[in-house]
Amino acid sequence: MLIKRPADVRSSEITDKAVYVNRRAFIRAAGVIGLGALAGEMTVQAQQPAPHGRKLENIRTSTLSTTEPRNTWQQITTYNNFYEFGVDKKDPSTYATSLKTSPWSIAIEGEVAKPGVWHLEDVLKGRTLEERIYRHRCVEGWSMVMPWVGFPLRDLIAQLQPTSKARFVEFTSLSDPGQMPGVRASYLRWPYTEGLRLDEAMHPLTILAVGLYDEVLPNQDGAPIRLVVPWKYGFKSIKSIVKIRLMEQQPIGSWQRENPQEYGFYANVNPTVDHPRWSQAKEIRLPGFFRNRATQMFNGYGDQVAGLYAGMDLRRNF
User: Where are the beta strands (DSSP E) in 138-225?
Assistant: First the structure.
């Protein structure tokens, strides 16, 4: 084994500390599979689930729901990606108790006739909610079946009255280092942002979720309001939304900005397009730990959404 003494190492060969730290954080955030999948199973079993919250009223069952068995409350609330609270799957359930979710306001900006600030209580007042049981697929290769409660995003957008220039929707998450310890780190540039094409945002499958299992959304799952786009990888479904902006130009999401070679704007679940560091052909259905389920195109929602991408090269527009 060759061991170099400090005097033998040129300065050009030394990795800058900031690069090294960020690279380690990025690799952790990417959720490398393998032994990590077994660790994920252990995490699901070991963590304390979120306390149950207020029951939501005026809920109807959606005809768009899958009939697959749902994951349990414990599984859904103890194994999460929510980078504002840390990069480990257990961090959100550990640290998200600090998040204050009421009162909550959402700024409405951009190409709309009705900009302003909307209070979540007013947005939900008198609204009929729907239970939507969706498959949720993360880019790292794991999936769950989630019983969301929410309402179609298109209902909200229609109230905003988009102008003729509106072609995209950008979403911004809360970024508060006082409540969110992950925001104090530099593995991403804060605040977290994501975007959709307007026709994707207006699709009936796209919802704003405010609940889980008929209860108010737990903090670690994106309280009090989050996006759910079930045919896309999980990082598109932005959490704790504080701003919605309609735009003429395509926005850039946080992971796309950080690493455009690995995270594209569309992020449609596609088993034929591998992540540069792992295959997307198969997935792990939690709480299992074997990658033994074939990944479905558009996460199984192809019949409903394939028409949105007619004529597009989905290997280039990943």
Answer: 142-152, 168-173, 193-197, 207-212, 215-216
